[in-house]
């Protein structure tokens, strides 16, 4: 057992599986680079056999990332494992993560296999994966609800086949901390070759205990890898949150006694990047990355904080990358100042052309908004990356009229399949009229399942950031738009969602 806790981030795989959180290859690559900056030990980049898009994303990440291990998920069969190995061929350090369900319910209902068949397939899969790469992780899906005797047999067998990491998922978020911790401990004590592998925890947050369960798995069970996601992104109530695990282990080092590689100063930037890319907004009272997470921002305790910082604060806001809202740039700022600010924010642009395009957007924004904050710059970069997707629909201009006692009307100009078009409509309000004007031409038939507006930097002078979630034929996508005018931001978000709806491809469902 080492004193190092391995942080395995699965934002791009398990997190991305959350309906509406799907990301393009470029978006994933950008988040992977941020995870590398954060010094995450392992980046689970995707599930290569699930779709060509996922294969390409994993491949691009494997080729670009040098400092973190890049991992690909695969079911326990040769085809999946070969696809993962192919996608990971360019990685500096590659890991194959293979899984098969071991709980009675999953084996019987989902796999329609006997326990003996599952055991045999798990062994063959790990053996096959070990012939491809040296670093192989095995997960018994729904492990926590599996029969402990059977699980011991499976795990002992896959370690003997060469699995280097054993991950025990609480796939459905059913565990409670003490029991889960002892479950891991029992497995490690009963399995004769358990010391040949690193033990890992993977918890879901259905009962709000993913972080607590993971920490119990570490403290009681002796696990030395935690699987987690930025902002706790994930299906249903989400996964274990990376920022909470990291800051708990750091802040309470007196108790956990573990070392981490994570460079915590990049946490807030990673959180913003993930929320802006997916449209999954972070609640204000979210630990570590919520807007109210630190006492000095909430007002109530300000007096105490001013007198003595540790009256109310157990962590320093700047240690996780919070900087005070300050005017960083304005209308007169040049390209170099803009580039420098991007670098300070940890944002790297893929090319000079991308930088120039982002700078142009910045100038346009600075013409309309006197003070540009870091949040504005990050939103602008996100918009720039979103527009790199093969854009079927893009915003040009908008006029709308609303007056008490009259029906609001909107007239919008946008490009559709490369051609400029004009849509007009009335609606219940200016936003409704604008989106109906778009829909009158696009006719997507999509149902809107979520609409939310958020002030990027707090006041009415800030940009509005709008998230639109659309559902069509079983697919769910999110679009995000930012603009000082919330009606324009709404139209951009709607067009962004339509683009995603248009480009999203079908894929196989992965492990929970
Ligand atoms: Zn999961």
UniProtKB/TrEMBL annotation:
Keywords from the named record: Acyltransferase, Amino-acid biosynthesis, Branched-chain amino acid biosynthesis, Cytoplasm, Leucine biosynthesis, Manganese, Metal-binding, Transferase
Ranges where the record places region Regulatory domain: 394-512
Domain annotation Pyruvate carboxyltransferase: ranges: 5-268
Residue numbers binding Mn(2+): 14, 202, 204, 239
Pathway membership: Amino-acid biosynthesis; L-leucine biosynthesis; L-leucine from 3-methyl-2-oxobutanoate: step 1/4
Cofactor(s) in the UniProt record: Mn(2+)
Enzyme class (EC, first level): transferase
GO cellular component: cytosol
Reactions accelerated catalytically: 3-methyl-2-oxobutanoate + acetyl-CoA + H2O = (2S)-2-isopropylmalate + CoA + H(+)
GO molecular function, one term: acetyl-CoA C-acetyltransferase activity
EC number from the UniProt entry: 2.3.3.13
Membership in a protein family: Belongs to the alpha-IPM synthase/homocitrate synthase family. LeuA type 1 subfamily.
Reported function: Catalyzes the condensation of the acetyl group of acetyl-CoA with 3-methyl-2-oxobutanoate (2-ketoisovalerate) to form 3-carboxy-3-hydroxy-4-methylpentanoate (2-isopropylmalate).
Subunit description: Homodimer.
HAMAP family: LeuA_type1 (MF_01025)
Name of the molecule in the record: 2-isopropylmalate synthase
Source organism of this protein record: Pseudacidovorax intermedius
């Amino acid at each position: 057992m080492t004193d190092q806790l391995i942080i395995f981030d699965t934002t791009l795989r398990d997190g991305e599986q959350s309906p509406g959180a799907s990301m393009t290859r470029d978006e994933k690559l950008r988040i992977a680079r941020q995870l590398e900056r954060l010094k995450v030990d392992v980046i689970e980049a995707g599930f290569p056999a699930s779709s060509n898009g996922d294969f390409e994303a994993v491949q691009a990440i494997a080729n670009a990332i040098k400092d973190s291990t890049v991992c690909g998920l695969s079911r326990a069969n040769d085809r999946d494992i070969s696809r993962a190995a192919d996608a990971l061929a360019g990685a500096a350090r590659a890991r194959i993560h293979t899984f098969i369900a071991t709980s009675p319910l999953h084996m019987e209902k989902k796999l329609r296999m006997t326990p003996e068949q599952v055991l045999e397939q798990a062994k063959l899969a790990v053996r096959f994966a070990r012939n491809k790469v040296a670093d192989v992780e095995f997960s018994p899906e729904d492990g926590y609800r599996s029969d402990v005797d059977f699980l011991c047999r499976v795990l002992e067998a896959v370690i003997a086949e060469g699995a280097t990491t054993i991950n025990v998922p609480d796939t459905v978020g059913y565990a409670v901390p003490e029991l889960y911790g002892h479950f891991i401990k029992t497995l490690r004590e009963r399995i004769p070759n358990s010391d040949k592998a690193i033990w890992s925890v993977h918890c879901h947050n259905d009962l709000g205990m993913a972080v607590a369960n993971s920490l119990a798995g570490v403290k009681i069970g002796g696990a030395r890898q935690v699987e987690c996601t930025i902002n706790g992104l994930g299906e249903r109530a989400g996964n274990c949150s990376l920022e909470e695990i990291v800051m708990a282990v750091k802040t309470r080092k007196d108790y956990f006694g573990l070392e981490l590689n994570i460079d915590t100063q990049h946490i807030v930037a990673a959180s913003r990047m993930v929320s802006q890319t997916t449209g999954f907004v972070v609640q204000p009272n979210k630990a570590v990355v919520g807007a109210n997470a630190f006492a000095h921002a909430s007002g109530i305790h300000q007096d105490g904080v001013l007198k003595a910082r540790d009256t109310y604060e157990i962590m320093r806001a700047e240690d996780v990358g919070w900087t005070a809202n300050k005017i960083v740039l304005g209308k007169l700022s040049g390209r170099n100042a803009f580039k420098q600010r991007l670098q300070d924010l940890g944002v790297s642009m893929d090319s000079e052309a991308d930088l120039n395009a982002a700078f142009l957007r910045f100038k346009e924004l600075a013409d309309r908004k006197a003070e540009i904050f870091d949040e504005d710059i990050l939103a602008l970069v996100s918009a720039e990356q979103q527009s790199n997707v093969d854009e079927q629909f893009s915003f040009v201009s908008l006029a709308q009229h609303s007056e008490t006692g009259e029906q609001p009307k909107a007239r919008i100009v946008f490009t559709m399949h490369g051609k400029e078009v004009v849509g007009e409509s009335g609606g219940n309000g200016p936003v409704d009229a604008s989106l109906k004007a778009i829909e009158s031409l696009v006719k997507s038939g999509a149902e809107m399942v979520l609409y939310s507006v958020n002030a990027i930097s707090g006041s009415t002078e800030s940009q509005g950031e709008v998230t639109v979630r659309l559902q069509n034929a079983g697919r769910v996508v999110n679009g995000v738009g930012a603009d000082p005018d919330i009606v324009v931001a709404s139209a951009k978000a709607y067009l962004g969602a339509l683009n995603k709806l248009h480009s999203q491809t079908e894929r196989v469902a992965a492990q929970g």
